[in-house]
Specification:
The complex is a heterotrimer of chains A (156), B (369) and C (131).
Chain A (H helix, E strand, L loop, with lengths): L2 H5 L5 E5 L6 H12 L2 E9 L2 H4 L10 H28 L5 E8 L1 H9 L5 E6 L11 H8 L3 E6 L4
Parallel strand pairs in A: 1-2, 1-4, 2-3, 4-5
Chain B lengths: L5 H32 L1 E2 L2 E2 L1 H4 L5 H16 L6 H7 L2 H12 L5 H32 L4 H12 L3 H7 L7 H28 L4 H11 L6 H8 L8 H29 L9 H8 L3 H13 L9 H23 L3 H5 L3 H25 L7
Antiparallel strand pairs in B: 1-2
Helix pairs in contact in B: 1-3, 1-4, 1-15, 3-15, 5-14, 5-15, 6-7, 6-10, 6-12, 6-17, 7-8, 7-9, 7-12, 7-17, 8-12, 9-11, 9-17, 10-11, 10-12, 10-17, 11-12, 12-13
Chain C lengths: L13 H26 L3 E4 L4 E6 L6 E2 L4 E13 L2 E12 L4 E5 L7 E2 L5 E7 L6
Antiparallel strand pairs in C: 1-8, 2-4, 2-7, 3-6, 4-5, 6-8
Classes of the chains: A alpha/beta (156), B mainly alpha (369), C alpha+beta (131).
């Protein structure tokens, strides 16, 4: 699966775009362990919900505000869970770091990639936030400044 | 994004707004007149007569072209703030529509609208709850879809979601389903209306009752008959729309109560709190405008004053609709799926067809305005 | 989480947006009423409906009062009778909506006119009234 990695040398730094696709985290962890690479987990809080419901002109009073607050809280909860899971699974296993940012998921991922990584591990399809509704992988691979490993969901 | 002052925020609106206004100006002043003259398939004005294309549909279509083709799927940052004013324009247009009525006509139409809507709201809510149980769907998904299919589509889903702990991913799917269904019906309803020889009153009542997403009711009425005057499709459809909007907080309350009844950690829903936080305040402006019109303060029917006022309304709606089109993302709608889509299609189609049957059977062609 | 990114527009909530829409609508109405009542120098009174001018009852210089018939139109009236659209040709009296003096009558008897497009008379209305 990771012939590309071997062909161009072992990755020293690894970026994992986090979502809840089963099996992807494990794959990134396996590669990091194998190459003793530094693993960065990126969790993007999706801040594009405002645009997603922007056409809705019938909402009254605090309706949309409450909705966005609610989504915001849900996103924070997901981020917290992702952090706990990330720490539990990487502690003492690999050198790891958890990064959190907010905005458009693909844009934020690209911005993080531009900081310089040997390989980025991306779930396919990407299911973080509203990316479930978009073809995030296509955009991400098109714009990616480094090598990308797409990992499909593990069959459970 | 750095913090900006009010002036900075207003300045950020200009580029997107200029694009919306410019687009409408080209459509209304050049494209629409050209379409009326051009001969296709041997028919003069084929585009208008057969395709029912008018500036309303063109505005929405152009907005969609901007988003999906010219902008490549995302509204660019320079235009984003401007396009977001779409809601302000539509709300302003809706408030001004209040001038088409007197209190008597509003009351008369409002009662028939309320009876029809009430029947359909509860019918759809029960149908969705039944479908939810049949398909073994999560209660929070059922609740959101019941609110959305029952009353006002996306706005009802947005209003109901926090109270029923809906998961963001389900919400995204539900919203795409409702919006997709709304857009589909927005484009096909004018054809059906014309084919079945519906009157403006029947058409307004039908789409006002049957279209899943209220956001598309006005646009589809204007697509059927672009005139803004008492007795036109938009004048009827708008009454239905207002009744639906007002009912959102009540339906959300009922559904929230239903949801928490089935949960172990029961929470109490408060109608007064929901009313305060969800009531659509712009509806008050609509009633204010009706009051002014009832007092005869806006000029007599047929006067040049009202003509100018309605021309302004048409422009305000048109500008807003370019923006509405630009918030329709084909990819997002295509991604609709899962159980929300199945529930939405069954409930939406049932409501749409049943409303048409009820209108054809029981609604007269005309009603005094 | 960036709260700023979630801000709606210049408005903080839908309530603000609703109030702004009410103010906007109010301003548009005020502008239209003010313009028509006080500013517009002469009003081009256009055809009230699509049809054919049957007669014109005023001429240049005629003083008119609100409610006076100024012209008649031969129009095709559409009515739904037993689910069928019936079309009857009728003559409609069209009245003037404000007091004033007729400045010009560009339309002629027999002209085919389009609603809100063709000018029938040019009126100098009494300031403060809504023509």
């Amino acid at each position: 699966m990771n012939t590309a990695v071997h062909n161009s040398g072992a990755p020293r730094t690894l970026l994992l775009v986090l979502d809840d696709t089963p099996g992807v985290f494990e794959e990134a962890l396996r590669i990091a362990k194998q190459h003793k690479a530094h693993l960065t987990g990126l969790f993007v809080l999706d801040a594009t919900w405002n645009g997603y419901v922007a056409h809705d002109w019938l909402s009254g009073s605090g309706s949309r505000g409450d909705f966005l607050d609610y989504i915001n809280d849900e996103e924070k909860k997901s981020a917290q869970e992702a952090l706990q899971r990330f720490e539990a699974q990487t502690k003492g296993v690999v050198e790891a770091e958890f990064v959190m940012s907010a905005g458009h998921v693909v844009e934020q991922a690209i911005a993080q990639m531009e900081k310089g990584y040997d390989l980025v591990v991306v779930p396919n399809p990407l299911r973080r936030g509203l990316e479930v509704m978009r073809d995030g992988v296509a955009e991400l691979t098109r714009k990616a400044p480094c090598r990308v490993l797409l990992v499909p969901a593990r069959q459970e | 994004m750095e913090e900006r002052g009010t002036l900075g925020k207003l300045a950020a609106i200009i580029p997107g707004l200029a694009l919306m206004v410019g687009t409408l100006a080209v459509l209304r002043l050049y494209v629409e007149p050209w379409m009326g003259e051009v001969t296709l398939f041997g028919v003069k004005g084929w585009l208008v007569k057969v395709l029912s294309l008018n500036y309303i549909l063109l505005s929405i279509i152009t907005g969609m072209l901007f988003r999906n083709f010219i902008f490549g799927g995302r509204i660019p940052a320079w235009a984003e703030e401007g396009f977001r004013t779409t809601r302000l324009f539509i709300k302003t247009g809706v408030i001004m529509l209040g001038s088409l009525y007197t209190l008597q006509t509003l009351l008369k139409l409002g009662v028939s609208a309320a009876v029809l809507i009430l029947g359909f709201v509860f019918g759809t809510v029960f149908l969705v709850m039944f479908l939810g149980r049949m398909m073994k769907v999560d209660r929070s998904v059922t609740a959101v879809m019941a609110a959305a299919c029952g009353v006002c589509g996306v706005s009802a889903a947005v209003a109901a979601a926090p109270g029923v702990r809906a998961r963001p991913v389900d919400l995204a799917l539900a919203i795409a389903t409702i919006l997709g269904f709304g857009i589909l019906t927005m484009f096909i309803s004018p054809f059906i209306g014309t084919a079945l020889n519906l009157s403006d009153f029947q058409y307004g009542a039908w789409v006002g009752t049957g279209i899943l997403n209220s956001g598309q009711v006005l646009a589809t009425c204007l697509a059927f008959n672009p005139n803004i005057a008492p007795g036109t499709a938009v004048a009827y459809g708008e009454v239905w729309n207002v009744v639906r909007v007002i009912s959102i907080p009540f339906v959300v309350f009922a559904i929230t109560v239903w949801y928490w009844k089935g949960e172990a950690d029961a929470k109490k829903a408060s109608l007064s709190k929901i009313l305060v936080s969800k009531f659509p305040v712009f509806v008050l402006g609509f009633f204010g405008m009706t009051a002014l019109s009832s007092l005869g303060m806006l000029g007599a029917e047929g006067s040049e004053t009202l003509h100018l006022l309605r021309t302004f309304m048409a422009w305000i709606f048109g500008i807003g609709l370019v923006g509405q089109g630009a918030y329709i993302d084909f990819r997002e709608i295509k991604a609709a799926g899962g159980k929300p889509l199945r529930i939405g299609i069954i409930a939406g189609t049932t409501k749409y067809i049943l409303a048409l049957i009820v209108i054809l059977l029981f609604m007269p062609k005309e009603v005094g305005f | 989480m960036s709260e700023k990114k979630q801000s709606m527009t210049v408005f903080r909530s839908d309530r603000h947006e609703d109030v702004a829409a009410m103010i906007f609508a109010g301003l548009v109405v005020l502008f239209v009423l003010g313009y028509m009542a006080f500013i517009v120098p002469e009003v081009h009174v256009t055809a009230a409906m699509d049809g054919k001018v049957a007669s014109i009852l005023v001429q240049s210089g005629t003083e008119v009062k609100k409610g006076d018939t100024i012209y008649t139109l031969e129009v095709v009236e559409k009515k739904w009778v037993n689910n069928v659209m019936q079309e009857n040709t009728v003559i409609k009296d069209i009245t003037v909506k404000a007091d004033g003096k007729v400045l010009d009558v560009p339309a002629k008897v027999g002209d085919k006119v389009k609603k809100s497009k063709n000018t029938i008379i040019v009126l100098n209305h009494v300031k403060g009234t809504l023509p």
